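Structure representation:
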Amino acid sequence: VLYCRFWELDQDHDFLIDKEDFSRYEGHALSRKAVDRIFEQIPRKFKSNQKDKMSYEDFIWFMLCEEDKTTSRSLEYWFSVVDLDDNGIIGPHEMEYFYEEQVHRL
């Protein structure tokens, strides 16, 4: 099932997903700002060895964090996406940063 999801996103089937491919995940469920943070490799460095490309292994790591948000790994992953200044606190400016895009998407 995970491989099928990866394959559907990987339009050119080079076994790497770029930001544009990834943005289509679950019908564009993630905001552009969240996708940008993931591709800035804030929550986890990519193993793909290619600039701005997510490998299958990277995608699996993302999926583990996306599907079960009750694990400490997932909480750390998503917290680091939202913690823009990396100070260990999610403040009002960070909440507003992500919220403003979501409001426009509704």
